[in-house]
Amino acid sequence: MTTAPPYWHTIRHRKLRTRIAEGLAAVDAMMFDSSKTEQPLLATSAQHLLAAGGKRFRAALTLLAAQFGDAEAPAVIKAAAVVEFIHVASLHHDDVMDQAHVRRGVPTVNARWGNRIAVRSGDFLLARSAQLTAELGAEVIRAQRSALTRLVQGQALELQGPRPGEDPLTHYLKVVSDKTGSLIALAGRTGAMVAGAHPDIVEAFDTFGETLGRVFQLADDLLDISGNPASSGKTAGTDLRQGVDTLPVLLLRALPPDPHDPADSRLRVLLDGSLHNDHDHQEALELLCNHAAFQQAREYTTREAIKARQVVMELPRCPARTVLLDLCQTAATRIA
Ligand code: FPP
Ligand code: MG
User: Fold this and answer.
1) pLDDT tens profile 77-116
2) How far is the CA of 87 from the centre of ligand 2 (A)?
3) Which candidate in 135, 137, 195, 243 could, as Cys together with 66 as Cys, close a disulfide (CB 3.0–4.6 Å)?
4) pTM for the full model?
């Protein structure tokens, strides 16, 4: 399980810290209540990842965005529960596709009950989120519809890979924006929207969420290579095993091979192989972590985090703005 304290514990403004903690507790209560069903296996499998914890990053962003309007508006908690439900539903499906065994420090739903139960319980969470969304009005429904479409298309695009002749880096960045930026943008947008914030603020949260979402996914992809399963709660090296080229690998492929560097040559040989052998897989992970391309990928992620900060700087000064500024850095350097 993750040992790092949830980032909202580090909010320095006491009143805001309490408000976010209470808001997240209310979001959790709503998600557990809404995922109840008389079918015991469906209920247990649907609540499995919810009960395992998780950062509730998207829900917290909704609550923070709501601070720029009427944060006490009754729809705020519901809007946060909806994005978190969609996120967890997508993880049920993602873990099936990635054949992942561990998430949030516990066996994945597919590892515990098999793919069919994992897909069905993911669908159930999605259905519950739709039920809650219906109570949030047409504008939220519209925003959610396009975010969901991009989320699913992003995942499909990743599976399909770049088209012949397409720049693999451009393809990768589109996947990152679609599969992760879209939902994090929705989290910020709907939080500001249901709190009745000014339309300029709603738009700013859309741009901010999209950029922060990219940072979040780029950092996730770095963690997949260099992360410690004890803190990330996930198995390392899933992308390499699945043959999914993320930023460090793409940057490495864009660099000319260095015939004087045996580590570079060996890594290229390994990456061109299948990596199904545990020893090769581990060796590739270690070589990649120490390659200049990995550092370049980190720097790219930091530059995206700076872009996200620039959007936040346009927002009115308030304690929530300070938290959002910190969040850009936290997302880029996270270990869980
Ligand atoms: C995690 O990526 C996955 C996503 C951000 C999106 C997954 C989307 C789908 C499976 C489409 C279906 C969607 C719904 C709503 C049912 P990752 O594998 O890079 O991250 P990880 O390291 O957390 O597994
Ligand atoms: Mg995955």
Assistant:
1) 999 999 999 999 999 999 999 999 999 999 999 999 999 9
2) 12
3) 195
4) 0.96
